[in-house]
Amino acid sequence: MGYPGALGVELADVKGDFPAILKKVEKAVADHGGAGRMGTWAFSYGYTNSVALTEFGQQMVKAGVDHKNFARKFKKEELFATYAKATPGAEWNGSFYTDIQTGVVKKNHILLYQDTYIFGKGYLQMTDVVVPEKYFTFK
């Protein structure tokens, strides 16, 4: 499916090894003349959610965080760091959901994203970009 399927890349020998998958797909993209023009998330979002959220939950339990004090102790940067640890080389960022009509920030809903990897160039460093406040409201 996706790039591997479109480019005829066989991944059975590297199943679950996302750096190895990325390397094989990147070679195929370059071989087809797409280097520098095609991008992807280097790690599966579904897989990473399972690994990172399990690890983050364990960290919270070890720190004595429970449903009563979670909102007070939760730091989104710690969540992003847990995702990054699960995806070597890829960075993560995000923000609390803001209702664009009302401007109300929902502290129980995070929009999360992984930096984009461009085949033949590397990561775009988009997770370092600060989104201006004006984009969080609709006028």
Helix proportion range: 25-40%
Order of helices and strands: HHEHHHEEEE
Structural class: alpha+beta
**Which residues sit in consecutive blocks of at least 5 with pLDDT less than 50?**
none
Largest sheet data:
3 strands, antiparallel
User: Order of strands side by side in the largest beta sheet?
Assistant: 1-4-5
- The radius of gyration over CA amounts to 18 Å
Number of domains: 1
Distance between the termini: 40 Å
E-strand count: 5
Walk me through this protein's architecture.
It is built from 5 helices and 5 strands. It is α+β, with helices and mostly antiparallel strands and 139 residues long. It has one domain. The strands form 2 sheets. It has a 3-stranded antiparallel beta sheet with strand order 1-4-5, with no helix packed on it. A two-stranded antiparallel ribbon has the order 2-3. The N and C termini lie far apart (40 Å). 14% of the residues are buried.
Which key features would you list for this structure?
single chain, 139 residues, globular, 5 strands, alpha+beta, three-stranded antiparallel sheet, two-stranded antiparallel ribbon
Short description:
The chain is an alpha+beta fold.
SSE inventory with pairings:
Blueprint: H1 2-7, H2 18-31, E1 39-40, H3 45-62, H4 70-73, H5 76-86, E2 92-98, E3 105-114, E4 117-118, E5 122-123
Antiparallel strand pairs: 1-4, 2-3, 4-5
Helix pairs in contact: 3-5
